[in-house]
Amino acid sequence: MGLRDKRMRLAGFGLLLFAIAVLFSAVSVGSALNVEAAGTAGATDLTESAISIKKGKIILKSRCGKCHAIKGPAATTLKDFKARKGPDLFYAGVKYNEEWLIKWLANPVPIRPAGFRYFKNIIVTEGSDDTVNWDALAEHVALTPDEAEMVAATLMTFMAYKGKVKKNALTEEPADAFMGEMNFDKFSGCLACHEIEPGYGGVTGPEVYTVAERLKPDFIYSYLKSPQSFDPKSMMPDKELGENFLQVLTKYMLSLEAPPDGEYDEGEEE
Q1: pLDDT of residue 70
Q2: Closest to 160 measured CA to CA, from 73, 243, 239
Q3: What's the total number of domains in the chain?
Q4: Helix extents (H) in the chain
Q5: Which CATH number characterizes residue 108's domain?
Q6: Which pLDDT score, from 0 to 100, does residue 39 have?
Q7: Residue 215 lies in a domain
Q8: Nearest 5 degrees, angle CA 72-CA 164-CA 82?
Q9: Is 196 inside a domain boundary?
């Protein structure tokens, strides 16, 4: 092989190495740009989330703070308890399901038939059952869909009492519907204060037929176990339920659901 041929081969090899180097450089730059773009998108998402939560806090303070405790602590005296106008929200993140909050805040419907301050809305009639003074009930403020999403996102960050909620509290054992209803209606007496379907049950406590949609399962279990650890002046009695009762009651409540619109007649009897 002549000197000229060797030089040509070396030149060709050099061009090949240069082409490979350029190719790898392009791939590296493209990967870096993709990573940077992904990082930028992630940062944008975080920024939007932070802005949404910040706006949600402003709405909470201006439109919800007069009726709800958004910072805590819970009422510890009867005077403070009677002064409350709505449920505490400073531990909403461990209590509520976000999707339900978004829907409910935009279209609030009564959860407690007699209102939160039921002791002010009950008409006591001698010789007959107490009745609700429907005219005394105030409507809850409705937010716009965008406001509802921002407020719900903010409430999900309110994690006080996180340590009071038992994680993965429920076993995988199937619920016993019969025993659940017996426990709720008879043994524990829950039906005296809570409705298990519209018009059936007590009116002083929140209805429970939407509890699966509304509340987190671990919270339900933990609240049933010790109501006063969440709300020291709660009127809900501590039944000192054993593990089996807690499992049965929680699973029973989670199995309930509101009947479809138009399929329930308040006057019908079973």
Answers
A1: 92
A2: 73
A3: 1
A4: 3-59, 78-83, 92-95, 98-106, 145-155, 177-182, 211-214, 217-225, 227-230, 243-255
A5: 1.10.760.10
A6: 55
A7: yes
A8: 40
A9: yes
Neighbours of 238 (CB within 10 A): 12
- Gap between the Cα atoms of 177 and 174, Å rounded: 9
3-state secondary structure (DSSP) of residue 201: strand
Q: Which residues pair with 201 in a beta bridge?
A: 195
Give the range of the structural domain holding residue 99, as residue numbers without chain letter: 66-255
Residue 194 inside a domain? The answer is yes
Residue 197: what pLDDT?
Answer: 93
Report residue 167 as tokens: 């994680």
Measured in Å, how far apart are the chain's first and last C-alpha atoms?
Answer: 106
**pLDDT, tens digit (0-9, with 9 covering 90-100), for 7-55:** 555 445 454 444 545 444 444 434 543 545 445 555 566 688 888 899 9
Place of tokens 């740009």: 33
Burial of 123 from C-beta contacts in 10 A (0-12 / 13-18 / 19+): exposed
pLDDT of residue 152 exceeding 90, the answer is: yes
